[in-house]
Amino acid sequence: MNYRRLGNSGLKVSEISLGSWLTYGGYVGREEAISTIDKAYELGINFFDTANIYMNGEAEKVVGEALRKYPRESYVLATKVWGPMGDRPNDRGLSRKHIMEQCEASLKRLGLDYIDVYYCHAFDNDTPMEETLRAMDDLVRQGKVLYVGISNWTAAQIAEAVSIMDKYLLHRIVANQPLYNMFAREIEKEIIPLCERNGIGQVVYSPLAQGVLAGKYRTVNDAPAGSRASDKHGNQTVKSWLKEENLRKVERLRPIAEELGLSLAQLALAWTLRQPNVSSAIIGASVPEQVEHNVKASGVTIPDETLATIDEILEQA
Prior knowledge:
The chain is α/β, with parallel strands linked by helices. The chain has helices at residues 30-42, 58-67, 96-110, 129-141, 155-168, 191-197, 235-239, 244-259, 264-272, 288-294, 304-315, and strands at residues 3-5, 12-14, 16-19, 47-49, 76-81, 115-120, 145-151, 173-177, 201-204, 278-283. It is built from 11 helices and 10 strands. The strands form 2 sheets. An 8-stranded parallel beta barrel has the order 3-4-5-6-7-8-9-10, surrounded by 4 helices. Strand 1 (3-5) and strand 2 form a beta hairpin. It is globular.
């Protein structure tokens, strides 16, 4: 496993990280989830991602339980705040009240004293940005959070946050968690250049487009037993990627992967990691074997001429 700095911070994270969305505390059983996390740790993954909203806190409980047997200094744990955790008006968003209360709730579910990376899971139009950033800064000063992150913010929102943090000398954002894969390259235009200038690293989610880029699906109606497309929670998310034009591109990528001695999944992961600003790519896994397979993408260099060919394929309709 290779490791990269998280943005301009001194924190080193594994190029491949393990997430828990729609899996742990959900359609993956507790024992399978723990054995998958154990396999990831064994293979050198030191970066684990979850969120309070994943299965309404159940994912945090499973991840916390699995990691508790390892030395705290040996892994990096990220979780998030923003999504609804109840029906009351202050049970969601990025107000100071919600951030402070949810940080405490996450720590209890995880069984930890501090969170390594705490993300604002999305942007909150109802809360002044200064209120949100000061609350995150206070958590860092209290020792409950070590690093501040954001997720799904626009370039303009990130730029405004950097300006506020500089103005009031708040702890800087070091991580951005955006959607990024061969089918979704929007961050390349503005967000990556902006983050490079401001020391913010990308921790990308859905690098395999929910398994579509792994070649798991051959037709738009194909849903192998046990896949996310066959699960009621993941079905709609997967189907947003499961389009004829995407499947055609996957088939054109297949011989390129074979020529490099890689699987389609390993090619797609290595492709995201070609970006120096990408600190880590988050994979989802329901069994240890998936982790074992995907970690082989770490350290892979795709030749420039092959990258050019991939670009041509991706640009085709």
